[in-house]
Structure prediction request, 679 residues.
Amino acid sequence: MIIRQRLAAGLCTLLAALTAGGLTPTAAYADETDSKPAPQVELLLDVSGSMRARDIDGGSRMAAAKQAFNEVLDATPEEVELGIRTLGANYPGDDRKTGCKDTQQLYPVGPLDRTEAKTAVATLQPTGWTPIGPALLKAAGDFGSGDGAKRIVLISDGEDTCQPLDPCEVAREIAAKGIGLTIDTLGLVADAKTRAQLSCIADATGGTYTAVRHKNQLSKKVGQLVERAADPVVNPVAVDGAAQCADAPVLKAGLYSDREKFGEHRFYRVDVDPGQELRASVSVAADRAVDRDYGVLLRAVTTHGREIVRGQEAGDGRTDAISTGLRYPKPEATGDPDDVASNAETVCLQVSNSYSAPASVKTSPGLPVELTVDLVDGPDQASDVAAFGLGNGWWLLLALVVVGFLAGVIWGWLSRWRVAVWRTN
Amino acid sequence: MRRTRLLTGALLGAATALLALAGPVAADDDTADADKAPTQAGTSFRTAAPMQQDQKATASASTGDYLYWSYPADAGQRPTVRATVDLSSAQARHGAQTWRIDVYDGLRRRQSCMYGMQARTVPAETKSVALACTLRPVRAWSEAWANDPLPGTYYVRLTVTSLADADLGQPVSASVEAQSKDIGSSVAVDGTLSAPLVPGTTASAEKAAPADGWASGWWTGRWVWTAAGAVLAALAGIGGYALTRGSGRPVGAP
Prediction:
């Protein structure tokens, strides 16, 4: 009776504990999503007159875009803050100056109200000019100040009509402002000039260009790009390298971004303790049309100018970036206070590139540079080529067997000679 | 009365058992997620899609995109990366295309391919491209001035390097797989890194490690070879001695 009561009491406590335990994990999940910065995406849609053309699956381009937007608005993940901006939606007239200011925010970048956004999209009618450059400038200002990923998805069917402002250079400049912006472009039934312009805009900011000819392609691609914004990714910290090691910024472990012009050297400093290993890697991106041969050099130098180790790479052809890296394991402290090498050392990292471009390509802002710095414990140094100085392979076995056999034979002769000597005495 | 007690006891027991099982199931969802092959590729080293070896990662992208994946490789393995690009969904292409894969180590250094067609040019009618790259065997340690492959993350980049301008942006789908052959003791080197070459800014260190963790570096096949050699040498020594020792001390001697 007592045992049964105790058993029941024990079961009850266990049940209570498990219920309580089962409830806490969800609380932890809620904390996680709250602390991550919300990714922001702005869809930038071309509503110019050319969108009236009926060449996407038998319907007009505008209809295809509207249907794609509805599907994307339905499928947008909860945490993404979506906004919509239009270009060429309001002014149908012929005055170029007015036409080139025609960009309007249809739905602000923020938590998404799907019905409101869908209603706004339904009212669009193909109207006027294609001011891609001015629209990109305005779109860059639409984003809030959060730390999350920022993407613009530009959907256009024709090239920019507002020369001399080059939308590709506008894109490069807003990417260089350091707000971490990526622009992906989609060309609807694009001709050669549109394609060149849209792919230039994508390359200038590290985005992708897609050629769209069918409705389902459009919704699938825009949906994929919106979801990509929601992927958790580490954002680099902007840093300004110096022209000389003495004034260089001191970096801790992390991911950094900078800009470097053609032929420029940038220096950074890292403090390495004895027994630590410095690992650095750098990528210099080709965000504009460069010549077909290029290279990068990452060098670790002491403050007195002695080169410790370098990483270098050369390449040719079409590429997004050229990268290299280096490792510097600093030896352990010897415990001798007079040994200078046992103190923390400041290592200068020099990044230089050998990109070149024809004279028509602008040299500023510089090329995007991504630098990673890691400090880990130093390795266990090797005292031999082979693991623990051990051997491997059939030749080893053969050599050991032959030597063992010979040793046995000689020992046998020695012992026989010893017996013979003993016998004669 | 007894029946009520029995019923209550049974209910309590069942509820406890259910909750006890439900707890681990909730935790399992996380780990199950981490083991699924990625269906999207990244667009740079920073955003590379992590995958494990022997998993087939897929991505749908446009011609001209740079697709990045990353996988872990441990000491003693010789990884082979195979990529297939399916070009059939694009419309009629306007010219030949050259597709290429590059493999980089955890320090973003380009690694050489021992075997395999790393870059292939295909004419306009071909439906798919197959690329492969076999890396050198991964060593546990190397000098800082060498480019030897070390245990850690390896990045794969797939892209088109030459194409007709009109083909830019056409839809393609790609799949990538990394498999390893275990080379073992013949590439076992002395020394070990204290931490594998995984960039510190990787979003999740658990996802970046192989399924059964990084090798500790103590075990190597060389112990077996050396021990076998020692035993055989001893046996051969005894055999040689037995051959030449003669009959030893004669019978009847003092």
Summary: DSSP finds nine helices and 16 strands in chain A. Chain A touches chain B through 103 residues (CB under 8 Å).
